C-alpha cells in the first residue's frame, strides 16, 4: 500500500524569479530546475508577502500574513502560539526534518550564541545553519566541514571588493544542505513513514561568494552580462529610503560607488550561486529516482523573496516592491500526479501551507489566510477558474533593520522606520510609503520595468483611487481570523 505523499520543500534565500533558465535567464546553467519546471507546474507570477526574510518565512510557513503572525521584522521572535505547516504535518504522522536556514527568531550571535530560538515547529531533526559564515557553535554546516577535516574560508576577488571566492563547490553550504537531504531520503526509503524535508539554502543571499570554479565560467562572457537597469534621477520621486540606500547601502553595496566591473561581477557571482543550487537540486532528484520515491514525492522549489541586484540603483533588499524584490520562482512537480503546465495566475506564498494540506489530504486550519491552489491549479481540474487571485498583497513594517538611526545617523525619518504596503494586479502596482504622503504606481502592461512613477500623475487618479481602495481592503482582510467565533453573541 502506497503511503501518503512525501514533500521535498526546497527554499533558496533572496533569489529573484529571473535567475533560472526556465524564467528566461540566458546566462545561468540550471538544467535540473528547468527540467523540473518542464515536467511540473511552473508558476509565472508568484510573490512573497514581505521582501524580507523573517516576515516572509513566518508568513508562508503559517499561511498567514506577516502582520497577522506578529512577526513583521528581522530580529523578532515568532509567537509561541503560531502553528507552522510542519507542526500540522508532524502531528499527522509525518517525519519532518530541516537542513539550513530557518530564521523565525533573531539570528544574531549577540542574542543567540548557540542557535536561534524555536517554537514547537514540528521538525524532529533540525540541522541548523543560518548562514555559511562563522558565529555559532551549533552551525551544523561547520560541524560537517570539521568532520571532513576542513574549515570554512573565503578569499577576496582580485578585481572587486564586492565579490569573494567562497568554499569549493564540494565544501559549500549549499552542497551540505543537499547532502543532508540525500542521506535523509535514502534512510526514509526503507520505511513507510511519510516525510517532509526542508532544504533551506542560504544562497544566493549576499555576500556574493560563489565558488571560484563556478564563477570562472562567466569570465569570458562577463561583458555580455547587462548592467543593472537604472537611469540617473529615477529615484527623485520615490520614497526617501530608496535614495538613501542608493548612496549608502547597509550591506556594503553603494551603487554609485561601484564600477561597471563591480556590477557585472556581482551578477556573475549571483548567477554562479544559482548554478550551484541547480547542481545540488539535480543530485536530490536523482536520489528520489534511485530510491523509488520520485512518483510519491511532491517537490517544491521557491525562494523567500528576491534581490534588487542593482536594478533601480539599489542592491539587496528593503522596503522595495519592485519585481526583482517580490517576484519569486515557484515550481511544483510530482510526475505521477501533476499535469505539466505553465500557470500565469497571481499566486501568494501564503497559498503554500493550505496547498500542502490539500496535497496530503488534511483539513485546512481556521487561522490560515492563504488560498489553496491544489484543486484549481495543480491537478488540472476541468472547469477550474483561470484566475486564482485578482491581486497580490505584500507589506514591510520597519522590517530591517529595526533602528535605522544606527545605520544612518541623523536621518530624520529613523524614528518611524520604513513602512510600506503594496497591491499588485495583473496590470498595475501601487505602493504606499506610510508616513511620507508619497508612494509609487506603475502601469505594468506598458512599463514592465517600473521606470515611470505615476503616483503624482493627475491623468491616472481614477486608477490610483481604485488601487488604494483595493489596498485598504486587503489590509483589512489581514485581520487575524483567530480566535474562532463560537456563537452569534
Please render the helix and strand layout as text.
Layout: E1 6-12, H1 31-39, E2 41-47, H2 53-62, H3 66-69, H4 85-91, E3 95-100, E4 123-128, H5 140-147, E5 155-156, E6 164-165, H6 173-188, E7 195-200, H7 212-215, H8 240-247, H9 260-290, E8 297-303, H10 323-326, E9 327-328, E10 330-333, E11 341-348, H11 352-360, H12 374-378, E12 392-397, E13 419-424, E14 428-433, E15 438-443, H13 461-476
Parallel strand pairs: 1-7, 1-8, 2-11, 3-4, 3-7
Antiparallel strand pairs: 2-9, 2-10, 5-6, 8-10, 12-13, 13-14, 14-15
Helix pairs in contact: 6-9
Kindly describe this structure.
With 489 residues, the chain is an alpha/beta fold. The chain has two domains: 6-389, Alkaline Phosphatase, subunit A; 393-476, Arylsulfatase, C-terminal domain (2-Layer Sandwich), CATH 3.30.1120. Helix content is 27%, strand content 17%. The protein contains 13 helices and 15 strands. It has helices at residues 31-39, 53-62, 66-69, 85-91, 140-147, 173-188, 212-215, 240-247, 260-290, 323-326, 352-360, 374-378, 461-476, and strands at 6-12, 41-47, 95-100, 123-128, 155-156, 164-165, 195-200, 297-303, 327-328, 330-333, 341-348, 392-397, 419-424, 428-433, 438-443. The strands form three sheets. Strands 1, 2, 3, 4, 7, 8, 9, 10 and 11 form a nine-stranded mixed sheet that branches. It has a four-stranded antiparallel sheet with strand order 12-13-14-15, covered by helices on one side. Strands 5-6 form a two-stranded antiparallel ribbon. Helix 6 packs parallel to helix 9. 51% of the residues are buried.
